[in-house]
Design a protein that fits this description.
Helices cover 73% and strands 2% of the residues. With 397 residues, it is an all-alpha fold. A two-stranded antiparallel ribbon has the order 1-2. The chain has a two-stranded antiparallel ribbon with strand order 3-4.
Length: 397
């Protein structure tokens, strides 16, 4: 028979693992999206149209769930709330994804994922600007965040300015010999490569802004995250249609059949828009925007493996070196974030002590045990009161 303490420990462990499992699962979803989308874009599909179909499908998938599960006590859509949703739709579906797809078309899936690793550093910088993160440069944890951000940006600049020689892979080299110089990944000029880098940086900046604003919007939709996701996808669809009409004047670009284009739109809409927005919101609600951006290096590794096999993707030395530098800077930022959360946890534990005990001069709290995490409770030492006096002689009779 399982003890209640074991059940509590197991449930607590699973609860703590949920954010990690959710973000790791999303990286696999993003990796598949990068490969499928690259094939579709190479086949001639307009990325403007892809964004429209992606979010139309995402809206159609997630809106029914929002209606059935969250139709009660819906937050009122005031003008400030509407503007938040409007800007979220503009940042994510329109700016981020259009620029990302354009950069992906000019570079490669692995390179695009590597540039996306700038996301935590840019999110940290914007969180400082909007006072969602604090910086005390005298402390090591904040020094690690700042240095990590600088290293990450430096790695991105290296990848942008230095392409370098081709790094041959055994399996991809064998595949290239059979493709006969076809449209494999990476066959772009240096000028197109540079433009693709700039587009990816702009997309990542828009993505970081999305995280910051989504954190603020979740205060209103804390219990209606499906509704927020469906509203953002719907607003993004409307805006993307307007952008497509302006940028694409040929009506034939809207045609889509039972092919890779439909698969790319459906996969991106279901997995990386509706599901990812919802899971991303759940994680940010508990862990914050910086944590939600911490797992992008995993996507880069998955895409590099899949891309080399499926697309015979070409990998260049500048991308490899820059990726390593970015990952080092990324985890410097994450280490500082982890230490900061640990300190905040200690402060919360101390705040749970009743005020009457805090103000008492006869109380001594062993904070060292909390910092070392050797105990799960706070030890309080209280002196015993004076011993009872002996009974008088007439009481003993």
């Amino acid at each position: 028979m399982i003890k209640s303490s074991d059940q509590t420990c197991c449930s607590s462990f699973l609860k703590n693992c949920k954010p990690y499992m959710g973000m790791i699962s999303l990286q696999f979803g993003y990796a598949g999206m990068n490969i499928i989308t690259k094939i579709s874009l190479n086949g001639g599909m307009s990325h403007y149209v892809l964004v429209v179909y992606r979010h139309a499908i995402a809206t159609a998938v997630i809106a029914p769930f929002a209606f059935f599960f969250e139709r009660k006590a819906q937050p009122k859509i005031t003008f400030p709330v509407f503007m938040q949703i409007f800007v979220l739709g503009l940042l994510g579906p329109v700016i981020d994804q259009n620029f990302y797809y354009a950069g992906l078309k000019l570079t490669s899936p692995t390179f695009s994922c590597a540039m996306s690793n700038m996301l935590p550093a840019l999110t940290f910088v914007m969180a400082i600007i909007f006072r969602m993160e604090k910086v005390d440069i005298k402390k090591v944890i904040y020094q690690a965040k700042v240095v990590g951000t600088i290293i990450t940006v430096g790695g991105a600049m290296l990848m942008t300015l230095y392409k370098g020689p081709l790094v041959e892979m055994v399996w991809s080299k064998h595949r290239q010999s059979h493709t006969g110089g076809g449209s494999s990944a990476g066959e772009t000029s240096d000028r197109d490569w540079f433009i693709g880098c700039i587009l990816l940086i702009i997309a990542t900046l828009a993505w970081a802004s999305l995280f910051i604003l989504q954190k603020a919007a979740l205060k209103t939709y804390s219990n209606h995250q499906l509704s927020l996701t469906s509203l953002v996808c719907f607003m993004g669809t409307i805006q993307a249609i307007a952008v497509t009409f302006v940028m694409e004047h040929n009506t034939s670009v809207w045609r889509i059949g039972w092919d890779m284009n439909l698969l790319a739109a459906a996969y991106a809409g279901i997995v990386t828009s509706s599901i990812s927005y919802y899971v991303q919101g759940l994680v940010m609600k508990t862990k914050g925007p910086v944590f939600a951006t911490a797992f992008s290096p995993l996507m880069m590794i998955i895409v590099a493996i899949m891309g080399s096999f499926i697309l015979a993707e070409k990998i260049y030395l500048g991308g490899v070196i820059g990726s390593v530098i970015i990952v080092v800077g990324l985890y410097s930022v994450l280490w500082g974030k982890y230490r900061e959360e640990k300190e905040e946890k200690i402060k919360r534990q101390l705040q749970e002590i009743p005020e009457a005990i805090k103000d008492s001069n006869i109380t001594q709290v062993t904070v060292e045990n909390i910092e070392a995490e050797k105990c799960t409770s706070i030890a309080i030492h209280m002196p015993l009161s004076n011993p009872p006096t002996k009974a008088t002689d007439h009481q003993q009779v």
